[in-house]
């Protein structure tokens, strides 16, 4: 590794990754918040088709980091791959800026975004892991703050892009409104790259082996050609739902096979940590089935069955655009993240911090309560529309659950997985998340509303039936997570003890 001269603090290095991650998520969530609605309202997709296309896209977006992590570890370097991913993402969002409503063009743009995200996501997370490597006390807090960066960027973009779409659409035409909003996502990535250029010195000493050597142009060319092939493959998968389903479920089997192989072939001292990582990854898959409802069923629910007016004590405060309700997830995470960091640090100082497995169990309980809130709102609905405040509190509980499960998922990889597997396993974790995202879209289709059904009272019954079932599923997941606590405690203890050198034998002459 390069020698720091002058030394750079962990905080400054972390801030650089934090800020580029914030802008990258600005672009991603600015696009995501509109995508399902764009397919339904502008391209004429039915609810089911829009949900599944976005589910397949989300699966690919989360699956490609498995390859991107390997490219970062072995070929280009962690820093270089992260920066390359940022450039590719900016290009993908710029393609959505072009005013065409051809669905095949959409598939190509989503393919470019998939490749860019695959290069960016695991390597940004892996840089954070490298910055805090060996610092067990601060790593949960660091990843929670890192997760907050995601949500600062996404909060701004999820509020901004629907407003830009409506404003530009009203003054310059509906088509230009949609594509201008997507273009803002590309601008966000460009700003993130400028910010990194100004702060790059703080990460000069952090990275993988290839970062410390000159660029190998043969490897770079191979990565470029592989990226083009992956864009075309992704576009093909997105327009063929049968192929998409086969690929997603096959990816799930492959991930389990990879975990099994790594556990079997690992050193005995590494095995307990890998088994613990596998158990928590499976729990994360169940969480992301719930998470995918935000951009699918909950998004379409807000279009049809939520009163867009915020009123307090009989006074009207403001109105929201339906897609903007998704920003509640990010707003709550920005509010709750520093609170949880304080709690983690306070408990850690006294040795009473909950294990990651315990936090996962609490997270599922919070998610279950959040979905029951939406069902509760149906009992006070007026003309098939629930108060916007039910969305606020439902998203609040849902977001607390996300912080406790997804927010610590990266920290779980950093803690339990050997450093030599860090980039690859970070990618494998995202493949598991991708599988869950697609499964979440399949679940969302249980509340798919037929095009000819316009009665909000009927659609309310369909949506709340799904949300109540998801709440019950959350309770089951909580019970399973609690039941797994003794096993996780045993695995964590074995993992911790594997790093303690054995006590040498005492001979008589030593006495």
Automatic annotation (TrEMBL):
Keywords: Cell membrane, Membrane, Peptide transport, Protein transport, Transmembrane, Transmembrane helix, Transport. Gene3D superfamilies: MFS general substrate transporter like domains (1.20.1250.20). GO terms for molecular function: dipeptide transmembrane transporter activity; peptide:proton symporter activity; tripeptide transmembrane transporter activity. It is found in: Cell membrane. This is POT family proton-dependent oligopeptide transporter. It comes from Luteibacter rhizovicinus. It is a multi-pass membrane protein. Its main location: membrane. The keyword Cell division does not apply. GO terms for biological process: tripeptide transmembrane transport. One of its GO terms (cellular component) is plasma membrane. The chain crosses the membrane at residues 22-40, 52-72, 81-98, 104-120, 141-164, 176-199, 220-237, 243-263, 272-291, 330-348, 360-383, 395-417, 429-449, 469-488. SUPFAM superfamilies: MFS general substrate transporter. InterPro entries: Dipep/tripep_permease, MFS_trans_sf, MFS_Transporters, POT_fam.
